[in-house]
Amino acid sequence: xxxxxxxxxxxxxxxxxxxxxxxxxxxxxxxxxxxxxxxxxxxxxxxxxxxxxxxxxxxxxxxxxxxxxxxxxxxxxxxxxxxxxxxxxxxxxxxxxxxxxxxxxxxxxxxxxxxxxxxxxxxxxxxxxxxxxxxxxxxxxxxxxxxxxxxxxxxxxxxxxxxxx
Amino acid sequence: xxxxxxxxxxxxxxxxxxxxxxxxxxxxxxxxxxxxxxxxxxxxxxxxxxxxxxxxxxxxxxxxxxxxxxxxxxxxxxxxxxxxxxxxxxxxxxxxxxxxxxxxxxxxxxxxxxxxxxxxxxxxxxxxxxxxxxxxxxxxxxxxxxxxxxxxxxxxxxxxxxxxxxxxxxxxxxxxxxxxxxxxxxxxxxxxxxxxxxxxxxxxxxxxxxxxxxxxxxxxxxxxxxxxxxxxxxxxxxxxxxxxxxxxxxxxxxxxxxxxxxxxxxxxxxxxxxxxxxxxxxxxxxx
Lengths: 165, 287
Ligand SMILES: Cc1cc2nc3c(=O)[nH]c(=O)nc-3n(C[C@H](O)[C@H](O)[C@H](O)COP(=O)(O)OP(=O)(O)OC[C@H]3O[C@@H](n4cnc5c(N)ncnc54)[C@H](O)[C@@H]3O)c2cc1C
Ligand code: FES
Ligand code: FES
Prior knowledge:
The complex is a heterodimer. Chain A is of the alpha+beta class.
């Protein structure tokens, strides 16, 4: 039988790089990314699942980084805003957010981008209502959301036009 | 806040899980999707000494249809239930309810079994299970048993499970011909727990309703099957008069209490509003 432990060895792939570390099992994934790996693009707002500032992608699905323990990610593939910015996957969304003032302080932006990217990957033609519903778990204290919905909508349109041409 | 210190272990089998539960007893908590438990740890509302991560028991994740029963393994994630074509076909009530369970990022990790075992009074899946007359498969080291949803939800966050037991699956009778489902909830924001919600299931044949089950949630310590309101539709066509009779009968079914946002009277009002909307939807008479 395995023994419960407070410290544990984890091996995971973060933004394509294999990483092994000893972690305190109480450490959540975003603390691990920020404190151990220096990836500070994932933020903490509430630490109990309501604000979405901590959104990261684990095994291809976006999750709340504050509600996942680093220990649970042993063997997982994790992608963060740093990795997904670096490889250009979010470039059109980032440009549209910038052009339409869909960020002010930027605290919510990494989470918004990853959440919007998930929506667009599954639904190339979302209505404004669907965009709002999908982003409803991500809080923004600055923009009032309109500009964010505008930016996501603009990217949908542009991606569709590009696909058609 | 940050979680307090605890020890973590991820058993590879059910037998090992039971051994760990036996050894650590009350000091241990099972960790499934963590979407309620890790939040509670971070808020320091829970401080178990040991977390037993059952996420590795993959044999209890997945959806199976066999002989008129659809089984959802306890570790099946909300997102997989939401996207399942079998669920859409055989359990349209769950298919309609799932998008209301939290936000996509939470549904990507939260599990069916976690929702049922946690038994939040404002949660969607317990109410749907009541309306669909589901059974839950529960096991301890010594024995396995089935408990009907109607017997399972005992009180606020309280279920029929005993210490040492694990929920393994929910078993639902598949949709019978002539039966329909409807689901709506009122929430402050999309993805929030409901203020009041209603999961409805029943038969509609030649315009006549029968065997209607109305499961309300957010209105008490557990989801509530409103028998008096449902009886108002038995053998009747959908009509304003039937809706009014059901709305009046709700008096005898529900006893909501005040919460920090809503008075009991407001909740009762909302439950009545939902009764009209959801039954119109069920009867295909949307107004
Ligand atoms: C921001 C936010 C919004 C949410 N909104 C909603 C909502 O609108 N509706 C809703 O229904 N839920 C909502 N949830 C909760 C979510 O659905 C959770 O996934 C669910 O309540 C618990 O499932 P879990 O797998 O994450 O369980 P965990 O958090 O891992 O566990 C919850 C509890 O159940 C026990 N448990 C888990 N699995 C088993 C099992 N198989 N056998 C015995 N005990 C078990 C655990 O020991 C623990 O006590 C929300 C959560 C968040 C963070
Ligand atoms: S910090 Fe994770 S949801 Fe707010
Ligand atoms: S830009 Fe400041 S929180 Fe969204």
